[in-house]
């Protein structure tokens, strides 16, 4: 048996030669291994690349590096877009080329060790079985590249340019400026003051508005779930109604109700009670912020109420009966039975509520367009980061600074989401499945 094994036809096969040949030209290593079909496929792919897209990729990488050299002729943003696409294509081709080299070397080693190649039909069947998951996920990966990765790369690169109203192609070229935009954000007074103010308000808005809607939803769910309450179905239906109305309709109605001059809240409630001209809900930042928090509480509590109601009904009554036998008070039963059970069942969804409100553009823009104006700042009194980015993009055309702030927002949210994901039980037990 040892003599047969040592006399196989590939005993002098050299994996190094297969590796070098596959590096020189994709597919040559496979031909050396006598895997002719695979070798011809790799050769065809490289020839097609050299004849069709090599010039386009070179032009795209040139545009990515220079962003154009002739004002009025070269369009810097189009060059940036084409450059990002070329960069993605280069990465894809490099991955394919590395796979070609690894495949040639691996098969050369197997042939030298006495491995017998399978027939064509068997090879196709084995390839289908091993590659089936990748074939099924490839359309999703391809879609993700152009929907997620491409816009993300474009936005990140845009943050390192001077693309704004005064450097807009094709009349002017856009230039790479490195970290100049980030430096301006923390050193130039108007940018520094605005960024600190908007960031602080975004955090306050997220924490207070979300916590308040969760608290209201929990309290109402506890009250309705009490055994002494009658007409539960009717009460639950009433509390769900604000959720049934489209949010943008509710926000516009509340914006009219909070109007300083003719709003129903001032005209019919505040002025009859305290007199004067009413409260400047839309013209003073502190009152405008209070108003948007109240509106968000109204919009958000129905979902929390419905969520908590379902969880409360799933808690076994035996636990409360056991607590009654032990002499537990209502507060003790809430603290040791109700609250832990509710938090355990709903914590991921509650975390999502905080993340959603951090980027809750709709209510901020529809209620008061981020106003009122604030002196020495280029953002309104109720603007959060996402609405400030919108204004920088569409109102002042400061695309580069909008990209900088978007990048900072992405890092904050990604870090928070990653931390929360690491704490979940599913992530910790993933390796045990």
From TrEMBL:
<keyword id="KW-0762">Sugar transport</keyword>
<feature type="transmembrane region" description="Helical">
    <location>
        <begin position="399"/>
        <end position="419"/>
    </location>
</feature>
<feature type="transmembrane region" description="Helical">
    <location>
        <begin position="198"/>
        <end position="225"/>
    </location>
</feature>
<comment type="function">
    <text>Part of the ABC transporter complex MalEFGK involved in maltose/maltodextrin import. Probably responsible for the translocation of the substrate across the membrane.</text>
</comment>
<comment type="similarity">
    <text>Belongs to the binding-protein-dependent transport system permease family. MalFG subfamily.</text>
</comment>
<feature type="transmembrane region" description="Helical">
    <location>
        <begin position="79"/>
        <end position="102"/>
    </location>
</feature>
<dbReference type="Pfam" id="PF00528">
    <property type="entry name" value="BPD_transp_1"/>
</dbReference>
<keyword id="KW-1133">Transmembrane helix</keyword>
<keyword id="KW-0812">Transmembrane</keyword>
<feature type="transmembrane region" description="Helical">
    <location>
        <begin position="15"/>
        <end position="32"/>
    </location>
</feature>
<dbReference type="InterPro" id="IPR000515">
    <property type="entry name" value="MetI-like"/>
</dbReference>
<keyword id="KW-0472">Membrane</keyword>
<feature type="domain" description="ABC transmembrane type-1">
    <location>
        <begin position="199"/>
        <end position="420"/>
    </location>
</feature>
<feature type="transmembrane region" description="Helical">
    <location>
        <begin position="131"/>
        <end position="160"/>
    </location>
</feature>
<feature type="transmembrane region" description="Helical">
    <location>
        <begin position="337"/>
        <end position="355"/>
    </location>
</feature>
<keyword id="KW-1003">Cell membrane</keyword>
<feature type="transmembrane region" description="Helical">
    <location>
        <begin position="39"/>
        <end position="59"/>
    </location>
</feature>
<dbReference type="GO" id="GO:1990060">
    <property type="term" value="C:maltose transport complex"/>
</dbReference>
<keyword id="KW-0813">Transport</keyword>
<protein>
    <recommendedName>
        <fullName>Maltose/maltodextrin transport system permease protein</fullName>
    </recommendedName>
</protein>
<dbReference type="InterPro" id="IPR035277">
    <property type="entry name" value="MalF_N"/>
</dbReference>
<feature type="transmembrane region" description="Helical">
    <location>
        <begin position="237"/>
        <end position="258"/>
    </location>
</feature>
<dbReference type="GO" id="GO:0015423">
    <property type="term" value="F:ABC-type maltose transporter activity"/>
</dbReference>
<dbReference type="InterPro" id="IPR035906">
    <property type="entry name" value="MetI-like_sf"/>
</dbReference>
<dbReference type="GO" id="GO:0042956">
    <property type="term" value="P:maltodextrin transmembrane transport"/>
</dbReference>
<feature type="transmembrane region" description="Helical">
    <location>
        <begin position="286"/>
        <end position="308"/>
    </location>
</feature>
């Amino acid at each position: 048996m040892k003599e047969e094994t040592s006399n196989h036809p590939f005993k002098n096969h050299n994996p190094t030669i297969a590796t070098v040949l596959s590096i020189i030209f994709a597919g040559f290593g496979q031909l050396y291994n006598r895997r002719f079909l695979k070798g011809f496929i790799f050769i065809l792919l490289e020839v097609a690349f050299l004849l069709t897209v090599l010039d386009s990729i070179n032009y795209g990488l040139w545009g990515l590096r220079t962003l154009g050299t002739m004002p009025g002729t070269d369009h810097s943003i189009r060059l940036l877009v084409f450059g990002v696409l070329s960069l993605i294509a280069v990465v894809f081709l490099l991955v394919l080329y590395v796979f070609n080299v690894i495949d040639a070397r691996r098969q050369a080693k197997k042939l030298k060790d006495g491995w017998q190649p399978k027939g064509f039909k068997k090879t196709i069947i084995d390839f289908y079985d091993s590659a089936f998951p990748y074939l099924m996920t490839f359309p999703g990966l391809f879609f993700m590249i152009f929907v997620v990765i491409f816009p993300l790369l474009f936005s990140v690169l845009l943050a390192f340019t001077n693309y704004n109203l005064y450097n807009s192609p094709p009349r002017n070229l856009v230039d790479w400026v490195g970290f100049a935009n980030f430096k301006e954000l923390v050193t130039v007074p108007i940018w520094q003051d605005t960024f600190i103010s908007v960031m602080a308000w975004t955090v306050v808005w997220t924490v207070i508005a979300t916590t308040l809607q969760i608290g209201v939803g929990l309290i109402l769910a506890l009250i309705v779930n009490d055994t002494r309450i009658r007409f539960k179905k009717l009460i639950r239906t009433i509390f769900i109604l604000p959720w049934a109305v489209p949010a943008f309709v509710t926000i516009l109605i509340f914006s009219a109700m909070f109007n300083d001059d003719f709003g129903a809240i001032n005209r019919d409630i505040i002025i009859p009670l305290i007199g004067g001209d009413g409260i400047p809900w839309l013209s003073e930042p502190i009152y405008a912020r209070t108003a948007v928090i109240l509106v968000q509480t109204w919009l958000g509590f129905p979902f929390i109420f419905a969520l908590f109601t379902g969880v409360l009904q799933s808690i076994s009554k035996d636990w409360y009966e056991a607590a009654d036998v032990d002499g537990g008070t209502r507060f003790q039963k809430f603290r040791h039975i109700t609250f832990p059970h509710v938090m355990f069942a709903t914590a991921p969804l509650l975390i999502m509520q905080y993340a959603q409100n951090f980027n809750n553009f709709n209510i901020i823009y529809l209620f008061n367009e981020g106003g009122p104006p604030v002196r020495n700042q280029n953002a309104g009194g109720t603007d959060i980061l996402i609405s400030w980015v919108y204004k920088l993009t569409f109102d002042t055309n400061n695309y580069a600074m909008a990209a900088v702030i978007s990048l900072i927002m992405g890092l904050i949210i990604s870090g928070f989401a990653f931390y929360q994901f690491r704490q979940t039980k599913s992530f910790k037990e993933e390796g045990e499945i």
